[in-house]
């Protein structure tokens, strides 16, 4: 794999304005046209072959659970690029190359739906960003927060599972 940007695009490309805007935005940001992946995205495989790769992952309006496939891929979201009102690109690099900015981070966790839990989490520790219900009756949730240790401590005190941090801004 060569050392230049990669655009993952799961939708049709023909006549797709967001696809064209994404390619232009990446070219403007990096000076290079991205390699495009239309099939399944294997983050771990890409970063294993090229730890310097940068992957641009589109998130469309009203999409839920988009971050689930990023877990375990050794990738970290380091930036968001808004390309249209309907689409933004998550800029992903290998975890080993990511630099923590110490600001907002995205935490993924498996939780049991309970109002007290959400009241506690929607305080100064973390805010719910996205959720996806599972067949097991739990919720995979994405939280935005500043302190990973506090977040993990609260999760563990309520008996929930912490899946990992997938981004930092």
List the helices and strands and how they pair.
Blueprint: E1 6-8, H1 17-30, E2 35-37, H2 43-49, E3 54-60, E4 75-84, E5 87-94, E6 105-111, H3 115-121, E7 126-133, E8 139-145, H4 148-157, E9 161-168
Parallel strand pairs: 1-2, 1-3
Antiparallel strand pairs: 3-5, 4-5, 6-8, 6-9, 7-8
How would you characterize this protein structure?
The chain has about 170 residues and is of the alpha+beta class. It has 4 helices and 9 strands, in the order E-H-E-H-E-E-E-E-H-E-E-H-E. The strands form 2 sheets. The protein has a 5-stranded mixed beta sheet. A 4-stranded antiparallel beta sheet has the order 7-8-6-9, with helices on one face. The longest helix has 14 residues, at about 15-30. The model has no long low-confidence stretch (mean pLDDT about 85).
């Amino acid at each position: 794999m060569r050392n230049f940007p990669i655009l993952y695009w799961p939708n049709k490309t023909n006549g797709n304005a967001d696809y064209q805007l994404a390619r232009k935005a990446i070219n403007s940001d990096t000076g290079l046209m991205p390699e495009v992946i239309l099939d399944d995205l294997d983050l771990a495989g890409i970063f294993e072959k090229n730890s310097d790769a940068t992957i641009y992952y589109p998130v469309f309006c009203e999409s839920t659970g988009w971050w689930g496939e990023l877990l375990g891929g050794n990738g970290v979201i380091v930036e968001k690029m808004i390309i249209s009102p309907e689409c933004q690109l998550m800029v992903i690099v290998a975890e080993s190359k990511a630099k923590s900015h110490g600001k907002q981070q995205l935490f993924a966790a498996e939780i049991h739906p309970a109002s007290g839990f959400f009241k506690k989490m929607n305080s100064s520790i973390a805010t719910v960003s996205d959720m996806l219900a599972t067949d097991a009756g739990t919720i995979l949730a994405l939280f935005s927060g500043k302190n990973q240790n506090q977040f993990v401590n609260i999760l563990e005190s309520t008996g929930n599972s912490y899946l990992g941090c997938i981004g930092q801004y």
